[in-house]
Design a protein that fits this description.
Keywords: FAD, Flavoprotein, Oxidoreductase. About 35% of the residues lie in helices and about 25% in strands. It folds into two domains: about 5-80 and about 115-190 and about 300-385 and about 415-440, 3-Layer(bba) Sandwich (FAD/NAD(P)-binding domain), CATH 3.50.50.60; about 190-300, 2-Layer Sandwich (D-Amino Acid Oxidase, Chain A, domain 2). The strands form four sheets. Strands 5-4-13-14-15-12-17-16 form an eight-stranded mixed β-sheet. The longest helix is centred in the C-terminal third of the chain and has 30 residues, at about 350-380. Strand 18 and strand 19 form a beta hairpin. The protein is α/β, with parallel strands linked by helices and about 450 residues long. It is globular, with a radius of gyration of 23 Å. It contains 14 helices and 19 strands. It starts with 8 loop residues before the first strand and ends with a helix. The relative contact order is 0.16.
Length: about 450
């Protein structure tokens, strides 16, 4: 028997974020009867939560349930019936002294929101293989029928398939583009959108003391203004808190360099940037003790997510702005489809490239579609392309009608998150795989 068919299929995953952990967990569930050797490499010395809250739409929650991860998460939030309507967020026009209600965005099926650390811990409890911390990935090289990996600590490893889930600044992506001969690709590095997001947490106790019965205590909110918006939603961890993302955009700076790392900002800086917003927004922002400032970056869409025995997923493949709340969800779908392909009994060391090709056909157009939609949602949420200057302060009714129509487009962009599911892509991928395996047989 040829050596390329002997032994387990060796899968190396670079990056232990949501995408990498989900892939490991999915391989553990779907590949129980397969000889799979999974190694997960993470540059950090420990797995820590970057960001606080994370949202699961009905589409992604179905995957979590299929993989059997839902039970460990439901201790943090109650289960929601698939037939029940859930509030995505309430929209207010807020960049004025007296803000006003615009509309509710409602989804059929459960909306689940968790602390990121709780999700990571749940995924780690289901993961398959070995987690290697403190392994900063440096490069890969395809040699004959395997991939050789090198790490900054001197470690050298070999695998049959390399999966880059190493985030927006992916080293695997750079290597993949170079191997394709695209050394000048605009997707080599992420681009800045001229946007900055301030993230922070506010305890229920602090907000209630400062502004009793504040809407954000129990209701997910979108406070919209011209080139500015604030998204909030309550999350339960050890205690209840409000997760906040406040975004400000300078369209003239889109595409220009932003060389500053994420950094702690002051509450005063944040309040100054949103000084024209209504009082309930001021109260909310004033309760953030240590806001963190992050650039909002994105990836110019890739033509392919794969090359040879190398695959990209998550932000490494399609880093997007946060306006659909779908970045982590798409990474989970990438992992779900890829795990199904790699768990198929017909996928061996010698023909794993067939699974890679099919993953690319199915996931590249889907990931790029969501990326484009996220950009469009940001334009809608920050009222770009909408002129309201002629409307006087207090003239809420005429403004509300125009804004409601404007935000109808936002709802349309989100419909795929609850009207569709990932099973169609899974079925397409497995059908194509079996057709190609039959051709060889």
């Amino acid at each position: 028997m040829d050596k390329t068919t002997l032994g387990p299929l060796r899968i190396a995953i670079v990056g232990a974020g949501i995408g990498g952990l989900t892939l490991s967990a999915a391989l553990g569930q779907l590949g129980k009867n397969r000889a799979l050797e999974v190694n997960l490499y993470e540059s950090a010395s420990e797995i820590s939560a970057i960001g606080a809250g994370i949202t699961f739409w009905p589409r992604q929650w179905k995957i979590i349930k299929t993989l059997g991860i839902d039970e460990s998460l439901l201790k943090f939030t109650p289960s929601v019936s698939d037939d029940l309507e859930s509030l995505v967020c309430q929209i207010r026009k807020s960049d004025q002294k007296e803000g006003f209600y615009v509309d509710d965005i409602v989804v059929k099926g459960g909306m689940y929101r968790f602390h990121r650390a709780d999700l990571q811990n749940s995924l780690m409890s289901h993961m398959k293989g070995t987690l290697h911390l403190g392994h900063q990935f440096v490069s890969f090289k395809e040699v004959e029928d395997e991939v050789i990996l090198t790490f900054a600590n001197g470690t050298v490893a070999c695998c049959d398939l390399l999966v880059g889930m190493d985030g927006i600044n992916s080293v695997v992506r750079r290597g993949l583009l170079l191997s394709q001969g695209h050394k000048d690709s605009p997707s080599m590095e992420p681009g800045w959108m001229g946007q900055v997001v301030y993230r922070g947490l506010v305890s229920e106790e602090a907000l209630n003391a400062h502004f009793p019965n504040h809407m954000a205590l129990d209701t997910p909110m979108m406070y919209s203004g011209k080139n500015k918006q604030i998204i909030t939603y309550p999350v339960k961890h050890t205690t209840k808190f409000i997760n906040i993302g406040a975004i400000i955009t300078d369209p003239s700076k889109s595409g220009t360099p932003y060389n500053h790392p994420p950094a702690e900002a002051s509450t005063a800086e944040l309040l100054n940037l949103f000084s024209e917003f209504e009082p309930q927004v001021q109260a909310l922002l004033s309760c953030i003790e240590r806001p963190m400032r992050f650039p909002v970056k994105w990836l110019i869409p890739l033509e392919r997510y794969t090359c040879g025995r190398v695959v990209l997923g998550g932000d490494a493949a399609h880093a997007m702005p946060p306006y659909q709340g779908a970045g982590a969800g798409v990474a989970i779908e990438d992992a779900y489809i890829l795990a199904h392909l790699l768990s198929h009994s017909g996928v061996l060391k010698a023909n794993v490239s067939k699974a890679v090709e099919i993953y690319d056909i199915v996931r590249t157009p889907e990931g790029n579609r969501v990326l484009d939609g996220s950009i469009a949602c940001g334009d809608i949420a920050q009222l770009r392309g909408l002129e309201l200057d002629a409307i006087e302060e207090g003239d809420h009714e005429s403004a509300r009608a125009r804004l409601k129509k404007h935000f109808d487009g936002f709802s349309k962009y989100l419909e795929w998150l609850w009207l569709d599911n990932a099973e169609e892509g899974r079925e397409q991928a497995l059908r194509m795989l079996e057709e190609r395996l039959d051709q060889v047989a």
